[in-house]
């Protein structure tokens, strides 16, 4: 969510390529994408981690019982738990996402996935209707996440979920995130929703067809098929309704758009583009920005002009509902692709690719970030990723240099700096 860091693969060779790129995008988010626990205050005691595994598990059992679980459920869930070195290896890998929007979205929003997604929309039409009625989430939003996370359940990860969470909770890097997830998993075992011995998922503990962490499943899980359980691995209806309730929790507003493709005039206040702007969609329309679908009825909403590859590439208005995508996964390219994917299920045309200016290779991007940092800009880590901090810094320098401030990193900008 987030959000998740699990490796994805795909249906056949095409989906295998897609899933690999999706995993990279998710790793940038430094996940998992789940509702974070309350921020620790300076006075908060440290979360127990490390040390003898048996003693650690005994402490987890005590915490689970204090949270309402039975001793029997805790014993059942934790029996045979082991540290998984492969999980630690994945957690330390710090994979990064360096594809462009065109590269990533062309792989992920494939015709095969669109076709399967449309079949799912028909197959589960009643469930999607209930999701929209109860939670206000459009079917395409759920379907796009379902596709991008696991190829509609085809590839959900092969790490033992309990061992993954034990490993990450025992490790002292982020125990405050993963120990509560482990306790939530015990609650799922007590409810009969999960077999800790056999359940597999992502390396960071996400479970099921829409890849959610145990704490979120416990909080937002819905029994969509009426069997009395929430089982996101096996049940499409459970996955659909749970995703809808979770997305509503993230702030999705009923009846509002999230992303809309637009065409652009030659001249705009490019420095006002990008996420976090102060303009409404209607103000952009008044400047000559035109929705390709012709719908200007949401002009009163806040609208950010999003240019993933600059003013000559694809262009979108991102509405307030776009923020839920950034809650699901922090990667700008992943979220923009997922939001675009959802519009396709809603009937949108394929985007216009445009003719983006040449971007920068990895080493060039690092050089640019170093120069920007030297000039006092906060670009975060020098990692070669065109993230939000780097985009903002680029816009400021483009504006200073008299260039169109569209936030796209080009060789011309690198030379000018």
Distance between the termini: 37 Å
Q: What radius of gyration results from the CA coordinates?
A: 22 Å
Across the major sheet, the strand order is 4-3-6-5
Shape: globular
Task: Give me the number of helical elements.
Answer: 18
The strand count comes to: 6
State which percent range the strand residues make up: under 5%
How would you characterize the overall build of this protein?
Helices cover 47% and strands 4% of the residues. It is globular. The longest helix has 17 residues, at 12-28. The chain is mainly alpha-helical and 417 residues long. The two termini are 37 Å apart. α5 packs across α15 (332-345) and α9 (161-170) runs antiparallel to α10. The protein has helices spanning 12-28, 53-66, 71-78, 85-93, 101-108, 111-123, 125-135, 139-150, 161-170, 175-190, 214-220, 236-250, 281-286, 323-328, 332-345, 362-374, 388-400, 411-416; strands at 159-160, 200-201, 259-263, 290-291, 304-306, 316-318. The strands form 2 sheets. A 4-stranded antiparallel β-sheet has the order 4-3-6-5. A two-stranded antiparallel sheet has the order 1-2.
Structure described in brief:
The chain is mostly helical.
Strands, helices and their partners?
Blueprint: H1 12-28, H2 53-66, H3 71-78, H4 85-93, H5 101-108, H6 111-123, H7 125-135, H8 139-150, E1 159-160, H9 161-170, H10 175-190, E2 200-201, H11 214-220, H12 236-250, E3 259-263, H13 281-286, E4 290-291, E5 304-306, E6 316-318, H14 323-328, H15 332-345, H16 362-374, H17 388-400, H18 411-416
Antiparallel strand pairs: 1-2, 3-4, 3-6, 5-6
């Amino acid at each position: 969510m987030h959000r998740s860091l699990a490796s994805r693969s795909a249906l056949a060779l095409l989906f295998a390529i897609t899933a690999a790129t999706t995993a990279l995008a998710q790793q940038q988010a430094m996940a998992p994408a789940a509702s974070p626990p309350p921020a620790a205050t300076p006075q908060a005691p440290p979360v127990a981690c490390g040390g003898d595994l048996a003693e650690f598990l005994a402490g987890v059992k005590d915490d689970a019982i204090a949270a309402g679980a039975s001793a029997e459920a805790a014993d059942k869930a934790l029996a045979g738990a082991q540290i998984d070195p492969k999980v630690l290896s994945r957690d330390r890998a710090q994979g990064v996402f360096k594809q462009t929007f065109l590269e990533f979205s062309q792989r992920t929003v494939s015709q095969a996935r669109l076709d399967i997604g449309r079949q799912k929309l028909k197959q589960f039409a009643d469930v999607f209707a209930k999701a929209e009625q109860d939670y206000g989430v459009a079917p395409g939003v759920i379907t796009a996440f379902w596709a991008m996370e696991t190829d509609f359940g085809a590839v959900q990860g092969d790490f033992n979920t309990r061992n993954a969470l034990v490993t990450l909770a025992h490790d002292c890097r982020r125990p405050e995130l993963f120990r509560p997830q482990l306790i939530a998993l015990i609650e799922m075992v007590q409810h009969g929703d999960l077999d800790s011995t056999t359940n597999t998922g992502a390396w960071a503990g996400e479970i099921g067809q829409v890849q959610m962490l145990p704490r979120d499943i416990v909080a937002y899980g819905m029994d969509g098929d009426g069997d009395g359980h929430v089982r996101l691995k096996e049940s499409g209806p459970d996955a659909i309704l749970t995703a809808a309730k979770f997305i509503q929790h993230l702030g999705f507003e009923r009846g509002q758009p999230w992303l809309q493709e637009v065409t652009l005039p030659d001249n705009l206040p490019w420095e006002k583009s990008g996420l976090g702007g102060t303009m409404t969609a209607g103000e952009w329309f008044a400047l000559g920005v035109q929705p390709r679908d012709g719908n200007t009825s949401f002009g009163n909403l806040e609208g950010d002009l999003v240019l993933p590859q600059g003013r000559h590439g694809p262009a979108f208005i991102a509405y307030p509902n776009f923020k839920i995508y950034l809650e699901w996964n922090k990667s700008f390219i992943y979220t923009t692709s997922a939001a675009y994917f959802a519009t396709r299920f809603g009937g949108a045309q394929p985007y216009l690719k445009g003719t983006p200016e040449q971007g920068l290779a990895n080493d060039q991007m690092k050089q640019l970030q170093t120069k920007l940092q030297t000039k006092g800009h906060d670009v975060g880590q020098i990692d070669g990723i065109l993230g939000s901090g780097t985009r903002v810094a680029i816009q400021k320098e483009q504006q200073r240099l008299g260039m169109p401030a569209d936030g796209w990193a080009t060789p011309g900008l690198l030379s000018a700096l």
